[in-house]
């Protein structure tokens, strides 16, 4: 059976533009909160294939999206490379021993060995594929190496990236060494996710906008393309979505072997279409806070659809859904995308 989401990623004509939401399995859903409470905490939930499968599937039935996204987190990668990860309540992720020097980079577990430790992710994927409706797709994902190393060097989320940037500008070779090591793990990790059954790959570069233009292409995009080249050579039919958040100013230099470009909400869809619409399918880009108002949601969907005209387009938010959005409004977003883009 064909999957509308996969067809859309490959640029095929579809009856409407499919839709999913970043962070669609999450705290705005009471059903998610219940399973997370049963699991004890967030990381336990990621480590438990049965429960991770359950929360992955929740938004399919509850909000009616066209694709599921694997429930996990980008930070399980550095965790399995040997950096102890905790999620501190109300504060987010924390690595207590961030990377500060070359010996610590060398001590990280690399390549296949690290990727093989993520067995709970591959088991979750197999379970999801047994239960997912045949016309729905499963998105697997990774963080871009740059976004991952921001957490590995800062130890947590940051507003200034000062430790990262200090390393980047004072010891660029060491930064490249770390990025190359993470890239190697990500290649094998995504290969194993594909072997376990994901239909589409998404690479999240959430902190792309922290870098100047030339540095962005040198320290981030280059590694994302290395990953997509590797995967495309082995699995040409698995679509790849790139989501570098906040680099609307750098679109002229975006090129490479992938299928879909994720447009964040700060980049006008018209601009993305003009610069990239012939080369790539575009995904996005409603400002997630519009979900607080059903009227504003419909207005935004109409505006995006006027630009994209239901062609070579996947609806999504321009970043993740926030925990205090009413479930009813998320349902409204999904059904309105499907209605308005119908051919
Ligand atoms: O339940 C909870 O309280 C934990 C909140 C939470 C959730 C639901 C975290 C902690 N991660 C997740 C799941 C998650 N993370 C998914 C699941 C699938 C889905 O989208 O439904 C995905 C794809 C991610 C990816 C992720 N984690 C990114 C990239 C996407 C993005 O949002 O930009 C990033 C940057 C992270 C790190 C992370 N994990 C969790 C938090 C709160 C953060 C961000 C911290 C920060 O702002 O620095």
Task: List bound small molecules.
Answer: coproporphyrinogen I
How much of the residues is beta strand, in percent? Answer: 5-15%
CATH class type: Alpha Beta
Number of domains: 1
CATH architecture identity: Alpha-Beta Barrel
Radius of gyration: 19 Å
The average pLDDT is 97
Considering the chains and any ligands shown, give keywords for the structure.
single chain, 343 residues, alpha/beta, TIM Barrel, seven-stranded parallel sheet, two-stranded antiparallel sheet, 50% helix, binds coproporphyrinogen I
Summarize the structure.
The protein contains 15 helices and nine strands.
General description of the model:
It is globular and about 55 Å long. It has 343 residues and is an alpha/beta fold. It has helices at residues 4-9, 30-39, 42-47, 49-63, 76-80, 102-107, 111-116, 119-131, 145-154, 162-170, 172-196, 213-234, 269-276, 294-308, 327-340; strands at 67-69, 85-88, 92-95, 137-143, 200-205, 240-244, 260-262, 281-283, 313-314. β7, α13 (269-276) and β8 (281-283) form a beta-alpha-beta unit. The strands form two sheets. Strands 1-4-5-6-7-8-9 form a seven-stranded parallel sheet. Strands 2-3 form a two-stranded antiparallel ribbon. α4 packs across α8 (119-131) and α10 packs across α11. The model has no long low-confidence stretch (mean pLDDT 97). The protein has one domain (4-340): TIM Barrel (Alpha-Beta Barrel), CATH 3.20.20. It has 15 helices and nine strands. The longest helix is centred in the middle third of the chain and has 25 residues, at 172-196. Helix content is 50%, strand content 11%. It binds coproporphyrinogen I. Coproporphyrinogen I binds next to β3 and β4.
């Amino acid at each position: 059976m064909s999957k509308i989401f996969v067809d859309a990623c490959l640029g095929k004509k579809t009856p409407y533009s499919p839709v999913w939401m970043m962070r669609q399995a999450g705290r705005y859903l009471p059903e998610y909160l219940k399973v997370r409470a049963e699991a004890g905490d967030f990381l336990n939930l990621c480590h438990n294939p049965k429960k991770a499968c359950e929360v992955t599937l929740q938004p399919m039935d509850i909000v009616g999206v066209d694709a599921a996204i694997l429930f996990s987190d980008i930070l399980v990668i550095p965790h399995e490379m040997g950096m102890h990860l905790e999620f501190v309540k109300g504060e987010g992720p924390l690595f207590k021993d961030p990377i500060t020097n070359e010996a610590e980079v060398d001590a990280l577990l690399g390549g296949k060995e690290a990727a093989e430790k993520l067995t709970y992710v591959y088991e979750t994927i197999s379970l999801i594929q047994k239960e997912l409706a045949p016309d729905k797709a499963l998105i697997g994902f990774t963080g871009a190496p740059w976004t991952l190393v921001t957490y590995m060097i800062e130890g947590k989320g940051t507003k200034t990236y000062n430790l990262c940037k200090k390393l980047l500008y004072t010891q660029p070779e060491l930064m490249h060494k770390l990025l190359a090591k993470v890239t190697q793990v990500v290649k094998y990790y995504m290969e194993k996710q594909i072997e376990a059954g994901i239909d589409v790959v998404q690479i999240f570069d959430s902190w792309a906008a922290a870098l100047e233009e030339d540095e962005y292409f040198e320290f981030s995009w280059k590694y994302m393309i290395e990953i997509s080249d590797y995967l495309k050579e082995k699995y040409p039919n698995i679509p790849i979505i790139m989501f570098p958040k906040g680099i609307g100013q750098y679109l002229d230099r975006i090129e490479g072997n992938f299928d879909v470009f994720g447009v964040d909400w700060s980049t006008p869809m018209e601009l993305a279409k003009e610069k990239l619409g012939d080369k790539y399918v575009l995904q996005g880009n409603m400002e997630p806070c519009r979900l607080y108002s059903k009227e504003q949601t419909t207005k935004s969907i109409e505006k995006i659809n006027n630009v994209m005209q239901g062609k070579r387009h996947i609806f999504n938010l321009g970043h993740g859904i926030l925990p205090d959005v009413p479930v009813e409004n998320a349902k409204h977003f999904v059904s309105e995308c499907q209605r308005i883009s119908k051919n």
